Prior knowledge:
Blueprint (H helix, E strand, L loop, with lengths): L23 H12 L1 H16 L3 H23 L8 H9 L1 H36 L6 H19 L3 H29 L17 H6 L1 H7 L16 H30 L11 H8 L3 H35 L18 H21 L2 H33 L5 H22 L6 H26 L1 H4 L4 H13 L7
Amino acid sequence: MTTSPPTTTDTSTSEDLPQGVLPLWAVFGVSLGILAPASTLALAIGVIMQQVGALSWVTWAVTSLLVLGFAGGIAWLARRFTTTGGIYGLTTRAAGRGPGYFVMFAHLASSLVSGPACVLGAAIYLDAWLRKLGVPYNPWILAGCSAVVAIAVTALSLREVKLSAKLLLLIEFLTIIVIVILFVVVLVRVPGGPVDGRQFDFSGFSMAAILATAGFSVFSMAGFDHAVTLGREARNPKRAISLAVVGSVSACGLLYLAGTYVIVLGFRDVPMDGIDAPLDVLATHYDVGWLAHLINPGVAISFFGSTLGIMAGTSRTVYTMARDGMLPKALSGVDPVHRTPRTAVLTLGAIYLIVSVLGALLARATTTYSLLGTFAGYMLVASYGATVLAAGWYAMRTRSVGFGIGISVLLAAFGSGLIYWKSFNPFPEGNRFWVAIIFFVAVVGIVGSWAWLKRNRPTVAAQVGESDRRTDADVDEAEGVETSA
């Protein structure tokens, strides 16, 4: 006997997140909003350009291909399992508690610095806008902007996630329109025409230089996976989440390739050293400075949207980890009115506030943004790569290997190895030396803590991923999956 599909009724309790309330566009909005293409066009491409030069588009081509491989593997798992724990939940279900534990803490470490980095990005462009209005530069103003952004993100994250999704989509759409207008102006007015031979001159090409920046560029394309944490709240999650993950990465990859070409073209006769807001400089240089008055607040809001999305995903991961006993139980508290992970949101908000304010005061903001992004990228490559390898293991174990998952696993394995080899050989110097050291210490710490936990606290280790099994069962029931009686 089979059960008929039930009506769409939220059966969750006040201690759970709501079930089946987010349509496809909202899930896509969270994924796209975290990627925040406007903010990457405005700041990250400039950071890469200063390090790589005219062939910056190659960095984005390589990064897009690698991240698409990650996204394909994650989407493949998302079509089979639902979770509120993100890729940690998927990895645990596919390959077991040990790999899931590693992905859980590697991804959490990345998220804890990605949020403050995006807060700083918003503050940088708010400060650039204030300077356009005649306010002189002052690091305390930048720190104040960071504090305002962190507090606003925290307050909004305590509300229903659907509201956040609407804002994310609207913010990105309007800001990208303004940036595209600037790109058209550059293409029309740039001296020498829109064809830039420098960007196709490979005589001095160095793949090592391209891959040395890959950690940061992966960070700039990361965050799409936070849509996976909406496994309970999304309608038809196994379809919606997989489409959002692959679709958002594909769209952004194409946009970054085109945007990089135009930005490098626009700076053909303009020095790039020491520039914090490259689109602002381009607008002024090409006599459309009025656009900067729209771009700067727009990009700041785009970074705000990205931070909002990261907060939405990370808070649900923390909520799930707390329910599994990996973090203090108090972090699993849910707001009784809005049904959001309130305690996790408030805790993350405090971290965002402290790290971003200190980052604005103790160093140049763009330097802090770059260093935080590089560390986040290193951890993301580890967590994404492990998740896709877990997907490959699950595909072989269940004899469901196909072309798509095969290509994803090959890209993840080869690309991750190549990025790490070129990033740490030769070993970074200066500030990036310490970023690399912290990364290796974090990886060793995660592996060591799992070994200790499994040996000394086996009952706690056995709880990894347990709360997600009920989530998956709830969603299957809500979708009307046939069950035998």
